[in-house]
Write a structure and sequence with these properties.
Number of strands: 16
Distance between the termini: 239 Å
Order of helices and strands: HEEEEEEEEEEEEEEEEH
Structural class: alpha+beta
Radius of gyration: 56 Å
Strand content: 25-35%
Largest sheet: 4 strands, mixed
Shape: rod-shaped
Number of helices: 2
């Protein structure tokens, strides 16, 4: 009898540990799966208790923040200052700017905003603007001379040559514009304010030229008239001399011989 009870007790005790192990194993599996898929922050599709978010929703960016020896991932709609967003088919990431003294960047090596007190020029940060450049309109961005603020070009002036508007066929015409604002007030950095081009017009006689030509024509006519009068005078004088010579020579008759 006692032997039978011992056998039953031994059999039951041998079955209990197996069942309890199965229950413990099942709880452990559920806890691991909970760490990877449940209880994640909003916008995070996959996370872990040790490293935060591992995969964000498609429209969000993942930012990895270092905490001692760990990197903790968080999901953001846009990247913070000092980072730029890189979209990828697998996952969008926030990547840190690699440019010194850069506060915001467009890509790893192109800055869009420098730290306070520094000037931005072609994606880099400087203590002062490079030579030949100046800060534009009170900003911290260095601009080239071509970025001076200029007025619109005025209309083309009349075609002229040597300050005359007539008496030629080919000349020049010009137009002007004003400098509205120059970098640091230095107008020498701005482009030209006058533009000149060749022009062609129908040649016309200047009024003073017409008057001068008329006067010259009058003088020429007077000269011709005077020469004609002189010629006529000389011709009349010659005729009168010939007449006088014929009248003063008498005819002589021969005397009869004695």
């Amino acid at each position: 009898m006692q032997l039978g009870l011992l056998v039953v007790v031994f059999f039951l005790s041998s079955m209990d540990p197996t069942g309890s192990n199965k229950v413990v194993k099942g709880k452990r599996q559920r806890r691991i799966s909970t760490e990877l898929s449940q209880g994640c922050a909003r916008g995070c599709d996959l996370c872990s208790e040790f490293n935060g978010c591992l995969r964000c929703s498609p429209k969000l960016f993942i930012l990895l923040e270092r905490n001692d020896i760990r990197q903790i991932g968080i999901c953001l709609p846009s990247c913070p200052l000092g980072y730029f967003g890189l979209r990828n088919t697998d996952m969008n990431k926030c990547i840190k700017c690699k440019i010194e003294n850069c506060e915001s960047c467009f890509s790893r090596n192109f800055c869009t905003k420098c730290k306070e007190g520094l000037y931005l020029h072609k994606g880099r940060c400087y203590v002062t603007c490079p030579e030949g450049y100046a800060a534009a309109n009170g900003t911290m961005e260095c601009s080239s001379p071509a970025q001076c603020e200029m007025s619109e070009w005025g209309p083309w002036g009349p075609c002229s040559k040597k300050r005359k508007l007539c008496g030629f066929k080919k000349g020049n015409e010009d137009r002007t514009r004003r400098i509205l604002q120059a970098p640091s007030g230095d107008v020498s950095l701005c482009p030209a304010t006058t533009e000149v081009r060749r022009c062609t017009v129908q040649k016309s006689q200047c009024p003073e030229g017409k008057r001068k030509k008329k006067e010259e024509q009058g003088k020429q006519d007077n000269g011709n008239r005077n020469r004609k009068d002189t010629k006529d005078t000389k011709s009349g004088t010659k005729k009168r001399k010939n007449k006088q010579r014929g009248a003063t020579v008498p005819a002589t008759a021969a005397s009869p011989a004695q």
